[in-house]
């Protein structure tokens, strides 16, 4: 049997429903809890907190405009602060995958604020004659201007943090670029031996990619700052006084410090979600770079005895329950998994934005969930990769040198001097015999030792131009490939 004392009865246009007595949410949220149980997890807390921030701004403006008495305003503001500090998260329960364009999330926040404000004013939860979820907390608002505005408020700080994480990743790659600036290793195209490169150069290429990702995300914030709050249901601003409409964006800018501004055409922000598609697309671009880096690290560390084995990744945990001593590239795999999920999330954002109809997009909640999840995954995954994999990465210099020498790729540097056919024959001979190309050149009388040191020097074969014609000798470079 149900203990009636554990519940309060609330009513709406559809009838009545028992609500747990200790719940700060109300009947709208209780219905949503039953209707939307697909995802098994509530909407992202950062989004719900951002909705509370909008309620806080609205209460301040409505109080100044004498649309709400100050005692209600102060109680609402206090309840908002409790949501913002996480104290009421347990009552923000509406599922992330919901119908209604976010109305259930908006009403969940309205009800929690109202019931907490009622308590602060000495009343009992559910007594909406004291503070009403819609008439007071949602005054002069609609889900349709609150939700897109709140999503922008939730996304912008995460975007800034992610840009900084990418900056740190760029710096970590640049540190490796410097550390291995003079180590020659085998460059590969289509997984086949190609030309020699300096190990540091590959890290420099990763750094450039991270720099582009950082800059793109930094610039994307500009489009997010324009908010449609004050547009109410369809962007026309119906049922909101002008004194509220022209003040609410300014109030939010002060509260958030995000440089927000009122849209000059709120209907656009109410129905069109392309700005979020743009941001998600940039996250996908970053994820594509990260997935490529993850794959490179796994390939170059493969084996190590039976694979390439040039990269030595930090050993962070045992790799097998049946193969003793096996250590897997799990952090690189984690980064790849994060990247895959972000790429998949971009598809959800794209479909949700494209599925809007007429004056509203009913699928904004799934867009919000996917976008915020992608941001948080990257924010957590990138520093883990940087700290637990990249920073401790070492290169096996002997293995790198061995692969260059055995491959015959240095023969490409001799084309200008020997011709393509002779260079190709020497490369084939080096690969077949396993002997260094330098020895074959010397023994065959193709080049003198001085010429070999000049033409095949690491700094000659890894920069633009014709090797050996820079005007510097191998001795002047300060490093030799073979002993005299």
UniProtKB/TrEMBL annotation:
Residue ranges the record marks as coiled coil: 159-186
Gene Ontology MF: a single term: aspartate ammonia-lyase activity
Domain annotation Fumarate lyase N-terminal: ranges: 17-343
InterPro entries: Aspartate_Ammonia-Lyase, Fumarase/histidase_N, Fumarase_C_C, Fumarate_lyase_CS, Fumarate_lyase_fam, Fumarate_lyase_N, L-Aspartase-like
CC annotations in GO: cytosol
Keywords, sorted A to Z: Coiled coil, Lyase
Protein name (Swiss-Prot/TrEMBL): Aspartate ammonia-lyase
Organism, scientific name: Paenibacillus jilunlii
């Amino acid at each position: 049997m149900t203990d009636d004392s554990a519940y309060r009865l609330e009513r709406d246009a559809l009838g009545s429903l028992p609500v747990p007595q200790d719940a700060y949410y109300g009947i709208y949220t209780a219905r949503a809890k039953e209707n939307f149980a697909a995802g098994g997890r509530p909407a992202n807390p950062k989004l719900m907190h951002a909705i509370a921030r909008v309620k806080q701004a609205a209460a301040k403006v409505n109080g100044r405009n004498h649309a709400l008495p100050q005692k209600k305003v102060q109680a609402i503001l206090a309840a908002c602060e409790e949501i913002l500090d996480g104290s009421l998260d347990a009552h923000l329960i509406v599922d992330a995958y919901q119908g209604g364009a976010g109305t259930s999330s908006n009403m969940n926040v309205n009800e929690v604020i109202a019931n907490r404000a009622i308590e602060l004013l000495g009343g009992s939860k559910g007594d909406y004659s004291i503070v009403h979820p819609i008439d007071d907390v949602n005054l002069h608002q609609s889900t349709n201007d609150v939700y897109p505005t709140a999503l922008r408020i939730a996304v912008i700080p995460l975007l800034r943090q992610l840009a900084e994480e990418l900056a740190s990743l760029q710096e970590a790659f640049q540190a490796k670029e410097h550390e291995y600036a003079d180590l020659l290793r085998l460059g590969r195209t289509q997984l086949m031996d190609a030309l020699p490169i300096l190990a540091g150069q590959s890290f420099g290429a990763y750094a450039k990619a991270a720099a582009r990702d950082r800059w793109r995300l930094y610039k994307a914030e500009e489009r997010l700052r324009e908010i449609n709050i004050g547009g109410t249901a369809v962007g026309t601003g119906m049922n909101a006084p002008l004194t509220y409409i022209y003040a609410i964006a300014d109030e939010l800018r002060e509260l958030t410090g995000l440089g927000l501004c009122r849209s000059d055409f709120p209907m656009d922000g109410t129905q069109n979600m392309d700005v979020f598609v743009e941001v998600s697309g940039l996250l996908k671009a970053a994820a594509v770079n990260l997935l490529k880096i993850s794959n490179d690290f796994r390939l170059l560390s493969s084996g190590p005895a039976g694979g390439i084995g040039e990269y030595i990744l930090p050993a962070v945990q045992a790799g097998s329950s049946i193969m003793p001593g096996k250590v897997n590239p799990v952090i690189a795999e984690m980064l790849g998994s994060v990247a895959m999920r972000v790429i998949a999330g971009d598809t959800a954002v794209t479909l949700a934005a494209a599925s809007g109809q007429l004056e509203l997009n009913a699928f904004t909640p799934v867009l919000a969930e996917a976008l915020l999840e992608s941001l948080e995954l990257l924010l957590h995954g990138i520093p883990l990769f940087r700290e637990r994999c990249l920073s401790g990465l070492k290169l096996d210099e002997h293995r790198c040198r061995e692969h260059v020498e055995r491959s015959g790729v240095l023969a490409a540097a001799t084309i200008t001097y020997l011709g393509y056919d002779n260079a190709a024959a020497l490369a084939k001979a080096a690969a077949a015999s396993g002997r260094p190309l330098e020895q074959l050149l010397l023994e065959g009388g193709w080049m003198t030792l001085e010429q070999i040191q000049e033409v095949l020097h690491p700094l000659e074969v890894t920069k633009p131009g014709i090797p050996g014609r820079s005007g510097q000798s191998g001795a002047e470079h300060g490093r030799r490939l073979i002993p005299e």
